[in-house]
Amino acid sequence: MPKRFVVAASEFPDLPRFPVGFELAEALTAAAGDLHATGSPGDTMNTAVALAVRLLPEAEHAGISEIQRGGRLRSLAWTDETVRFAAEPRQGGHTPHPDWERLWTTPVVRTDDSEADGGGSVLSGLGLRSTLSLRLRADRRRLTVLTAYARKPQAFDEDATRIGRLFTAHVSLALDSATVREQLTEAMRTRDLIGQATGILMERLDIDAGGAFESLVKASQRENVKLRDLARRIVDANSGAGGRGVTER
C-alpha cells in the first residue's frame, strides 16, 4: 500500500504565488527542478501538493488520490487534514467527488460551487466550495488525480486550469521518473538478494550456480512464494542461528 504524506506549502517560500507571464515560466522551471530532485514517488507527490498551492491561483489546499475502477479511492498525499477528509470516502465507500469519474475520459474536472445544488456534500460540509481536479496518471484499472481546493465559489478559472495542466505535466514526468528509479533500485536489490541465496544453496547443497537457482525457483513455485521473498528468507535464515531455509533440490 502506498504511503500517505502531508506537507505544508510554506516549505517552498521562494516560489512566487500565483505566477503569470514570464514569472509563470520561471516558477514552472523551479517547480520542475524541485519535483525531479525527489528520491521516490512518495516524495514527488509530497512535493507536488505543496507546489500546487503555491502555483495555482486561489488554491488553498491540495491533495493527490488514487481512484480505482468502481469508485474505490485512496488518498496518497495532502497538504492538511481538511484535504484528507475531503478526499476520503464516506460510509459505503463512495467517492466524495462524483465528477471524478469523468477523469477517465477527460484530463480536467472543475467544481464551481459545491453548494450549487443545496449543499449537503462532503465538500460543502468542510467549507470547500471549489475544486480543480487534474489527471496525473491513467490506465485501465486506476487513476491518479491531483486536486486543488478553495473555500470560495468559482475560484478556478481558465487561467488556473491552464497553469494546472502545465504543472501536472511536470508532475507526471517527475512521477514516472521517480517510479522508474525506484523500480531499478528494487530490481538491483532483488538481483543481489537472489545472488546471495543462490550462493548459500550452492554451498549448502554442494551444487553449481545453475542447480542452485533451479532449486530456488522450484521451491518458490512449490511454496507459492515470490522468488525475492524466498531468497530473503534464505539469506535471513543463514545469518541467524542455524536456520536452514530451503534444503530440497
TrEMBL record:
Which stretches make up the ANTAR domain? Answer: 174-235
Where does the UniProt annotation place the signal sequence? Answer: none
Q: Does the keyword Transferase apply?
A: yes
| Pfam families in alphabetical order | ANTAR, GAF_2
State the SUPFAM superfamilies in the record: CheY-like, GAF domain-like
Which InterPro entries does this one have?
Answer: ANTAR, CheY-like_superfamily, GAF, GAF-like_dom_sf, GAF_ANTAR, WH-like_DNA-bd_sf
The entry's protein name is: ANTAR domain-containing protein
Keywords in UniProt for this one? Kinase, Transcription, Transcription regulation, Transferase
Q: Establish whether keyword Transferase is in the entry.
A: yes
